[in-house]
Amino acid sequence: MDGYGEDGKSSDELIARIRELEARLGALRAAPDTSSLVEELRVHQIELEAQNRELIEARRALEDARDRYSDLYDFAPVGYMTLDEHGVILEINLTGARLLGQDRAQVIGMPLSGWVPNGAVAQLFHHLRRVLSEPGRVFDHLPLHTSLVRESPIRHVRLESIAFTQYGSGRLCRTALVDLSDRKREEDRLNLIAQVFERSTDAIMITDSLNRIVSVNRAFTTVTGYSADEVLGRNPKLLASGRHDRDFYREMWSAIERNGSWSGEISNRRKNGEIYNEWLTIHAVRNESGGIENCIAIYAEITDQRAAASRIQFLAHYDPLTLLPNRALLQDRMHQGLAHAAREGTRAAVLFLDLDRFKTINDSLGHLVGDHLLQEVAQRLKASVREDDTVARRGGDEFIVMLPHVDSAEQAAHVAGKIIEAMEQTIPVNGYVLNVSFSIGISVFPDDAMDPDTLIRNADIAMYRSKASGRNQFQFFTADMNAHALERLALENDLHRAVERGEFRLMFQPQFEGSGSIIGAEALLRWQHPQRGLVTPAEFIPVAEETGLIVPIGTWVLERACQQVRAWRDAGLKKITVSVNISALQFSQKNLLELIRRLLAVSNIEPGTLELELTESVLMHDHVATSGLMSELKEMGVRMAIDDFGTGYSSLSYLRSFPISKLKIDQSFVRDLSDGGDAGAITGAIIGLAKNLNMRVIAEGVETAQQASFLQAQCCDEFQGHFFSQPVSPEKFAELLRAE
User: Fold this and answer.
1) Gyration radius of the chain over CA positions
2) pTM summary value
3) Is residue 607 classed as helix, strand or coil in its secondary structure?
4) 669: Cβ contacts below 8 Å, ≥ 6 apart
5) Residues 674/703, Cβ–Cβ less than 8 Å
6) Backbone torsions φ then ψ of 128, nearest 5 degrees
7) Given this model, what pLDDT does residue 306 score?
């Protein structure tokens, strides 16, 4: 601010002039000539008043100039502030305070570091040290929070600082803050665009107005084999395959001129001469006058895409393992076949096939063997039907055969017989020789149903009847089968609520040693349904295993068995072993070990009083994990027995590698002892095997004195069956123990 009035005199000169006049006025007052004194006073008064007016006007001009400077300072587009050597804000304009997100009064006296992210505080103080130690202006970039809240957004500013000395305050720093946030966002946007360009998996090429290549991305180099240096400045026709004529390119450029873009399939040639197909999209970039300044060409190679599309199309309609039609294609063919049969007034048939005991093979020998078996089965099925018949895989071990033209139901039965016959031959898979069979259900159009879904459902119902009747056979659908299927569904629904309703009961069948003394009991589950009455295990256990309900039901059995052992011990009865059947699904649960440990602790019984009965298929599934779990159970003191021994797939080497204490001879062998067949030899061999492996052996299903005598003669250790005792209630079992 210059501080001058309108006539160019400074305010200091005006003040000096007034003081001079005042002095002369005093001299005049002391003079003897009063008239001259009065005149001179009047003159000087006029002059003094004029000078005073000039002084007032000069002060007003000074204030106006100061206001203009203050407005320019406060409302400048740049933030200004004065900092001391510690970075404390001594002065700041409104723009600077706004950048910091505070009122000016709140900012004064605060350290600028309060707005600086933790990682940049050292950078701020380094900047201040440079300003105070170096001559001239110092520039830097710094991130700042938009408020004192640490989670507030970040803005990027440029610092322009210079040092100066102020009387009484020492060396200070005058700093300008330039907000670079918009520029930073624009730089980030451009960088992102550049990254998208360079990292795109599609080849991108940019040409100028003369159709010269000015830029290509990395994917262009990968696809074409040309480096950027090899193509920059050249015409894109170097990629031409020669498969397109001039009319093709003329129409392409006409579309670009007319619409600003063109898309289509094109054949190009790589640097190595290989011709490939790609989808090309060209966009024109026009200048202000409307002329084409650049063209952006995006190439998407479709050679692999075509192969992938074919693969997707295949997977949408075929099973990838067996290469048979899947459900979707089967539905389409069934709709067509049934529509044709309806027009012609002929019959069609659906065969629902389920591979018998496939789960046992899959679990015991592994999924790889199971997959190879399914592939071989698929080939045999295809060889058993006509070319216009459809063999489809429904999922898992289920197959469906659609016969669109049959003269009678007997013709469908003939096909089912051919399939059963084809499966009679053994199947070699990965060193194993397997024997498998099908349970088959048949439904006929239009006799059993008119639509595909109902035909499949009815054939499924018939298949279950076939499986229940002994497997390896076929059954035609009948109305009573449908009623049976509905009954099974109702049974499943009731089973879901049986545990919470307290409908299950445990019975205990005594186990005797040769002397006739009771040494243990098998816990047997019974279901007392409020409407159905007593539901046998043969009815509900398969349903429980299929639905997964066997796990919570099995947990309930374990818990009640342990509680009952505790109750018998508290009653002063002798120590016995209680065996509990464990399903394969329950044994595979990760928490089984912890569950048994907890139940033993809660019931406070010795681990040796609990015996787990496992089937041979459990041992064959995941040998390492199964062996590890059984070893931990043995360390706890829990005993393990193999149930239904002789009916599964286990080998002697597997049997020796598991901590098994007992073999349980399957009741089918015991039942056939009186027939004089091979059962006696097999039973004797099992007992001898157990003895050689230092295991105890128990025979279940002993029904007659003849069976008991044979088993005792073979040195069988333990016996279980109706000949000795039927399953009894816990109270009755306690009476049997007291009677000994």
Assistant:
1) 49
2) 0.47
3) helix
4) 646, 679, 682, 683, 686
5) no
6) -65, -40
7) 66
CA pair distance 159, 174, nearest whole angstrom: 10
Measured between alpha carbons, how far is 662 from 650 in angstroms, rounded to an integer? 15
Decide: residue 203, CB within 10 A, 0-12 exposed, 13-18 middle, 19+ buried. buried
Distance (Å, whole) CA 596 – CA 554 = 11
d(CA 615, CA 25): 134
Alpha helix ranges (H) inside 88-139: 94-99, 104-107, 121-133
User: Are the C-beta atoms of residues 442 and 459 closer than 8 Å to each other?
Assistant: yes
pLDDT of residue 66: 63
In whole angstroms, what is the distance from residue 18 CA to residue 58 CA? 14
CA–CA separation, 737 vs 730, rounded Å?
11
What mean pLDDT comes out for the span 478-498?
76
Per-residue buried b or exposed e for 357-380, using 16+ beta carbons within 10 Å of the residue's own CB = ebebbbbbbeeebbebbbebbbeb
Region at 341 (left for phi over 0; alpha for psi -120 to 50; beta for the rest) = alpha
Element (H, E) at 214: strand 213-216
Reading the block at residue 100, the tokens are: 């910091």
Alpha carbons 378 and 244: distance in angstroms, whole number: 47
For residues 521 and 508, is the Cβ–Cβ distance under 8 A?
A: yes
Mean pLDDT, residues 587-600: 91
101/81 Cα distance (integer angstroms): 14
In this predicted model, what pLDDT tens digit does every residue of 647-696 receive, in sequence order? 655 456 667 778 889 999 888 888 888 766 677 888 888 898 888 888 99
Strand 213-216, strand 138-145: pairing = unpaired
Pair type for strands 577-581 and 518-529: parallel
Quote the percentage of the chain above a pLDDT of 70. 89
Taking Cα atoms as reference points, which of 150, 147, 154, 152 lies closest to residue 184?
A: 154
Which tokens in the block code for residue 529?
A: 């349904």
Nearest to 440 by CA among 411, 409, 419, 410: 419
Pairing mode, strands 203-207 and 292-301: antiparallel
